[in-house]
Amino acid sequence: MPTHATIEVPSFGEVKVPTGLFINNEWVESQSGETFSTVNPATGKPFLDFAHASKEDVDAAVKSSRKAFKTTWGDNVTAVERGALLDKLADLLERDAAKIGALESLNSGKGVRIAREFDVGDSIATLRYYAGLADKLHGQTLNHYAKEKFVYTIHQPIGVCGQIIPWNYPLQMWAWKVGPALAAGCTVVMKPSELTPLTALVMCDLAKEAGIPAGVINTLPGLGATTGDAISRHPDIDKIAFTGSVATGRRISVAAAESNLKKVTLELGGKSPSLVFDSADVEEAASWIAMGIWFNSGQDCCASSRVYVQEGIYDKFIAALKSRAEACKIGQPSDEATSFGPLISETQRDKVLNYIESGKQEGASIITGGRKWPESNGGYWVEPTILADTHIGMKCVQEEIFGPVIVTSKFKTEEEAVELANNTIYGLAASIFSNDARQQTRLAASIDAGTIWLNQYGILHPGVPFGGFKHSGIGRELGTYGMEAYQQVKAVHQNLTQTM
């Protein structure tokens, strides 16, 4: 198949986009000749066919990355040079922000304004952050051994890294992984989601234009069971970084262990609780929690999908949350006003509707939403939904829905609230709404989650680590922790006077 296709992009007309494999800075076809198809989530109609990377393609990409790591990247290039190239890449992404935002919107169903201002904007910020951090992390000198020896540590890049990213934030997750890996000196074999591979491929052309050497970034569209598994099991890949479901994370961990025991970082699912106390500003809490659950149509691993409200303000809070659900701007992704687009696929839409039906059957009441958007016209929208009167045993309370559905119930005491919040296999994020500063501090320490927001929700920054407790993952992304995940520490003992 050809390695490029021409598509119609709203506001840009006909645009030529890559659909092949990017190996050693060249566009190539899959060695097997196989392809896979994608669907426009706003219409339910076919979108683009992409090359399906085979095991042999993975081998070729890994060889390219290994060669680059040994010659033109890794410790062969100063950290300042790596940072300068990442900065150049950020410049090019900023230059093309409108077009890449439109492509992201088209492929994923996000509102075009959201894609341009938030997804592209955050990706630019992440690349700039790691460009600046490239020469800031370093080892230690351990001069504690008198005249016997001198010891120091070196932070070195791990090597060739397989990176597997999800469909809910295709460009953003690309930047979250590529930024720290390249800053640390690693090379990358990237597999974007088979549902949303477009912008990861578009970024390859920008990386080449920025001057990033051949082999540093290789990108292989393909299915998880084939391309993803081949990456996870490849004996010459030194690390896997994955964002996605718990089930897939388990399979990747097993594959990594069964092959060469490669290092693994996982950012997995969530069922994040929000605790709203009587002292909270109800309107403010409702606004933050609404953003936390209905941003990206609820397709967010740290979405505020469970809310527990102290009984004295429960009715007032539910009314405030309902008004915000009904004010969501549902619409076509190409509309600048749209903030709530379709779900990614028919399968995902039906999964969400089944969770809503399950909640109803187990006794929950629907405050608003709970159905397909009447104007879907073949697309995959589900209305913003509030399920009330839920309890801890319900399937919709225990399992990650990954859609625009929030479950709510009451609590009486702080102790009960903590018990409810922690009664989950997940531990990605949580929020506390209270005007009692001491209560905030107690709860921030008591809730089992990697991110805690106090009187806020959902705001992330490139310099702040992100990751989960329990089934929500292993390791951290962003911040200095995110770059350390792509480095290994070597201790060097220099003998000065010791003799055998």
UniProtKB/TrEMBL annotation:
Domain Aldehyde dehydrogenase: 27-492
GO MF annotations, alphabetized: oxidoreductase activity, acting on the aldehyde or oxo group of donors, NAD or NADP as acceptor
Record bears the keyword Lipoprotein: no
Keywords assigned: Oxidoreductase
Annotated signal sequence range: none
InterPro entries cross-referenced by the UniProt entry: Ald_DH/histidinol_DH, Ald_DH_C, Ald_DH_CS_GLU, Ald_DH_N, Aldehyde_DH_dom
Residues forming the catalytic site: E267
UniProt xrefs under PROSITE patterns: ALDEHYDE_DEHYDR_GLU
Family designation: Belongs to the aldehyde dehydrogenase family.
Entry-linked PANTHER family: ALDEHYDE DEHYDROGENASE-RELATED (PTHR11699)
Protein name, UniProt field: Aldehyde dehydrogenase (NAD+)
Organism: Kwoniella heveanensis BCC8398
